[in-house]
Amino acid sequence: MDGSSMGYNFLGSSGLKVSNICMGTMTFGEHKGGRPGNLDEAAAHAMMDRFAELGGNFLDTADIYQRGESEEIVGTWLQKQDREKFVVATKVFAHVYLDNLNGVGLGRKHIMHAVEQSLKRLQTDYIDLYQTHMWDSATSVEQTLRTLNDLVRAGKVRHVGVSNVTGWQLQKIVDHTRFMGLESVISLQQQYNLMTRETEYELFDVCMNEGIGFLPWSPLKGGLLSGKFKRGMDGPGDVRATRIGWASEQPEQRHRHDQPTWNHFNNDKTWNLLEAMEEIGKGHGKTVAQVAIRWLLQRPTVSSVVIGATKMSQLEDNVGASSGWELTEEQMQELNRLSMPDVPYPYNMIRLLNKPRKDMSF
Prior knowledge:
By secondary structure, the chain is α/β, with parallel strands linked by helices. The protein has twelve helices and ten strands. The strands form two sheets. An eight-stranded parallel beta sheet has the order 9-8-7-6-5-4-3-10. A two-stranded antiparallel ribbon has the order 1-2. The radius of gyration is 20 Å and the shape is globular. 44% of the residues are buried.
């Protein structure tokens, strides 16, 4: 795969153009407590070099990833690049320094300190997309949004995004920014894939109605949709899908009882979906992972898909979903049908009593 292999989209209604594959950097850094198989600085730089060669311009990190080491690695790489050619996103919320009682959440004190630390680690004067990493029940949304607006006015942040929220939380954020005359939220980053579609209940509608770009993370469900798992096989020793979620950032919580297990996924629904994906992929000369990412790219309001890779071959394969081919309408509908989750009340009733939107599958 040579030269630019990337497609590009506007990020929501911001006018900012990003590659439709975003280089997620959770796999960068080897801090104690980090995920197994993470990349050291040299390997991470090589990964970003190749991503840029393929036309990628969108990088996503967070202050909590390896407690700042991921941001540091991105920062040393940016020093060798033309900064203006890249869109750099990071996130704020988590406890990076555990000995600081106020070093967590979305209050003004923490955000103002956290952004300065992220700028220092990233070795840049500004952050293109500054995202709240989750909802903060301890802080008023007005305080959080005014603080983020101040950062935009100060030139430290170009745009604001959110991640890991519910439908009512996102709509509340949107309404407050509008009525308070503050900087609009341009993006939502949320777990979304063929095995995790609950985001479609409400969040998609908010994004479409409000011009918010959608950034799915975990597009392969922690590797479950990579194509390496087959019907009848024993559960692998380590499936990232069984430790996806906010708790996975905290080593002591990775094996909580409410985290999914291999048995949660080992069923006919999973295998029927994966086998259909494999068959569809063969028809296009594509892999199962590429089918999973392509499905996301053809969903409404998706601007870019956040991938993670520990091997160059994984990066190359993921980027192979970006452009030059599409799933047919029939194939999209088949994947929608096979991956359809159980729709709870009141969404099932709404779906029955209202004419479905043509661009939604629920």
